[in-house]
Amino acid sequence: MKRQTITILIILLLTSILLSACASGTEKVRVATDATWPPFEVVDEGTKEIIGFDIDLMNAIAERGGFEVEYINVGWDALLAGMAQCQYDAAISAMTITEERKQSFNFSEPYFEAGQIVSVNINNTDINGKDDLGGKVVGAQLGTTGAIEVEQMEGVELKNYDDIGLAFQDLMNGQIDAVVADNPLALGYIGQNSDKIKSVGPVFTDENYGIAVCKDKTELLEMINKGLAAAKADGVIDQAVENWLAAGQ
Questions:
Q1: What are the 10-residue block averages of pLDDT along the chain, 249 residues in total?
Q2: Domains defined for the chain, CATH in brackets
Q3: Are 77 and 141 a contacting pair, CB within 8 Å?
Q4: Whose CA is closest to 121, among 190, 22, 46?
Q5: How far is the C-alpha of 232 from the C-alpha of 145, rounded, in Å?
């Protein structure tokens, strides 16, 4: 009887320890990203890990918001559809906050200002900005605000790409006339290929990036906004700009 009592006490003690560990465990959040958008998110060829501006920021937000992140690398269209169906808890992927997207999922407070810009071959003298794109073939990534802008341009043929890097490759090879993309991304590609491509004209849209959050995850949205505010106050975004944008990566 005594031995049985001791066994029961041990079981109760172990159960209590396990329950305490679960209660104090850090929540793991599944965050989708399309890691084909340097310098915001890209797969490091050496380590095969996802790195970039957004990843540094999201890690900082998670640390300050009190949760852990599991990144899922997924194509842009699948990311948007998955977020609409809450297949992922959140997504960070240089995503512009738009009224249409707000119908499918929530957004954090904005964390970065961006806009669309036109890139052309270094030898091109016909295109000096978006108003010169009539009659041209223009590349953009499928489903992005860049593609949406090109679709609205009269007389412009849009060529959609699943990977924006392929659009810039076609531009360098002379297979398309221009690329429309977010200015930080475009400037990154131009910095790496300054002998082949250039930007023309000013940034012609005013956009803000935000972190998408599943409509059902209101508490997570609060955690992310709390972590984002703390990260901003701690200078994390300024440091990410220095590391990923000012350095021309």
A1: 46 44 65 94 96 98 95 96 98 96 98 95 96 98 95 97 95 97 91 93 95 97 97 94 72
A2: 27-113+208-246 (3.40.190.10), 116-205 (3.40.190.10)
A3: no
A4: 190
A5: 25
Q: CA 115 to CA 18: how far, in whole Å?
A: 50
Place of tokens 């860049």: 146
**Which is nearest to 67 in space by CA: 75, 59, 76, 79?**
59
Q: For helices 53-65 and 218-233, give the axis angle rounded to 10 degrees.
A: 110
Among candidates 22, 23, 41, which has minimal Cα distance to 31?
Answer: 41
Tokens of 208: 């803000």
Q: What is the chain written as a DSSP string? A: -HHHHHHHHHHHHHHHHHHHHHHHSPEEEEEEE-SEETTTEEE-TTT--EESHHHHHHHHHHHHHTEEEEEEE--HHHHHHHHHTTSSSEE-SSPBP-HHHHTTSEE-S--EEE-EEEEEETT--S-SSGGG-TT-EEEEETTSHHHHHHHTSTT-EEEEESSHHHHHHHHHTTSSSEEEEEHHHHHHHHHH-TTTEEEES-----EEE--EE-TT-HHHHHHHHHHHHHHHHTTHHHHHIIIIIIT--
**Going by C-beta distance under 8 Å and a sequence separation of 6 or more, which residues neighbour residue 249?**
38, 39, 188, 191, 243
- Are the C-beta atoms of 228 and 61 separated by less than 8 Å? yes
